[in-house]
């Protein structure tokens, strides 16, 4: 048999692939409760609005032919203009449609950036813990991921600067708002400082911000990109959490020189993103559905988060620590004692029909890092099931101490 490429034999990549398999492992039991799923709630999907829009779009005298035809590498212009005016300008990011590329989901930006910038052995600084899906992409390109310390205000920039001096990275990858997996948000002053470090050391910052708009309490913060004066910050975002994950739409904001290269990498990958999804999304915004939709989904997640926080405080064992997110879909719990959450997950899925994501897979440093941690998602679980599932899970954890 023809041999696979060497990178697919890399033990680190194989291990990450195993983590990804567990991350998407379905909960098939009829009474199962999946705290592992990082997707939006079914109730947050704009089914009725899109049905109405589709009736208008898919007509020859509407946008039907446009939606079903080939498109340009950058994506349809009205959607890019909507992104600039409605999603970026209110957040302090001033740009134009020419510096926005529509991608096939938020993750495609990571691959395009790796295509353009990473050579084998290049270093990428990541958060500890970090989003494992992007680690997988970096590893496919034979990059070396170096972890940087975090606290309850996000990345500790003294550690970031020390790692910059030691490892001379090509890129810094961060999820600054309601981070996956912890739910932690990078403080405003640290965002500005990170942009300044990127300029000082001539390093790219890849700002992955798909949860930013799902804020249900606290003050909105400017993106890192808003502090970028020299084109060292590339902003990646997604429509998956605020519109539809099935649409597979995201976007990237980058300066001219970077945009030129990643747009050609896009052409080499898939020519352009789905025109059908782009047209439907553009019409969703142009017809004024988004503001009320966003209010509704933020209220939905606010309720679910509050129920989750109260349930963990009530039912998990004394000594448990967890984050209190101001938005997004996740909280992060650190259990007392010497519980291995990877083994715990096997037991809870088998005996309780409850899933979460074990913490160790989010740490690139390996070893026992994250051994006693878990990512718990409240986004796709109803308040009633959150109460039942967290009580059942907490009671079981107490028997292991």
Automatic annotation (TrEMBL):
Domain Aminotransferase class I/classII large per the UniProt entry, residue ranges = 32-393
As one GO molecular function, the record gives:
transaminase activity
CDD domains, A to Z: AAT_like (cd00609)
Q: Which residues form the signal peptide?
A: none
Among the Pfam families in the record, one is Aminotran_1_2
Indicate yes or no for the key word Zinc-finger. no
Q: Which domain of life is it from?
A: Bacteria
| Cross-referenced PANTHER family | AMINOTRANSFERASE, KYNURENINE_ALPHA-AMINOADIPATE AMINOTRANSFERASE, MITOCHONDRIAL
Its name, as the record gives it, is PLP-dependent aminotransferase family protein
Native species of this protein?
Megasphaera hominis
């Amino acid at each position: 048999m023809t041999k696979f490429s060497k990178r697919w034999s890399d033990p680190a990549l194989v291990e990450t692939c195993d983590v990804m398999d567990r991350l998407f492992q379905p909960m098939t039991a009829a009474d199962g409760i999946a705290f592992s799923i990082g997707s939006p709630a079914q109730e947050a999907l704009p089914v009725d609005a899109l049905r109405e829009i589709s009736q208008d779009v898919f007509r020859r005298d509407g946008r039907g032919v446009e939606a079903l035809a080939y498109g340009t590498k950058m994506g349809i212009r009205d959607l890019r203009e909507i992104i600039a005016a409605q999603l970026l300008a209110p957040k302090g990011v001033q740009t134009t449609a020419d510096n926005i590329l529509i991608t096939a989901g938020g993750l495609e930006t990571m691959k395009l950036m790796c295509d353009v910038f990473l050579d084998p052995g290049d270093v990428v600084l990541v958060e500890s813990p970090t989003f494992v899906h992007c680690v997988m992409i970096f590893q496919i390109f034979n990059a070396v991921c170096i972890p940087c310390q975090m606290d309850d205000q996000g990345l500790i920039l003294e550690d970031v600067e020390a790692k910059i001096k030691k490892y001379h990275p090509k890129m810094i990858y961060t999820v600054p708002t309601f981070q996956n997996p912890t739910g932690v948000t990078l403080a405003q002053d640290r965002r500005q400082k990170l942009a300044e470090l990127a300029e000082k050391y001539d390093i790219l910052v890849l700002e992955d911000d798909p949860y930013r708009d799902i804020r249900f309490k606290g003050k909105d913060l400017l993106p890192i990109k808003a502090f970028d004066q020299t084109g060292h910050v590339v902003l990646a975002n997604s429509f998956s959490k605020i519109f539809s994950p099935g649409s597979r739409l995201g976007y990237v904001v980058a300066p001219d020189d970077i945009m030129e290269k990643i747009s050609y990498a896009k052409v080499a990958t898939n020519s352009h993103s789905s025109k059908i999804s782009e047209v439907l999304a553009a019409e969703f915004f142009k017809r004024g559905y988004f503001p009320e939709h966003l209010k509704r989904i933020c209220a939905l997640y606010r309720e679910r988060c509050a129920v989750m926080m109260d349930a963990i405080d009530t039912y998990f064992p004394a000594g448990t620590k967890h984050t209190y997110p101001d938005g997004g879909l996740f909280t992060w719990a650190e259990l007392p004692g010497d519980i291995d959450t990877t083994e715990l997950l096997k037991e809870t899925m088998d005996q309780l029909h409850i899933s979460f994501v074990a913490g160790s897979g989010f740490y690139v440093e390996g070893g026992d890092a994250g051994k006693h941690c878990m990512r718990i998602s409240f986004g796709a679980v109803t308040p009633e099931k959150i109460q039942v599932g967290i009580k059942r899970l907490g009671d079981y954890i107490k028997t292991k101490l």
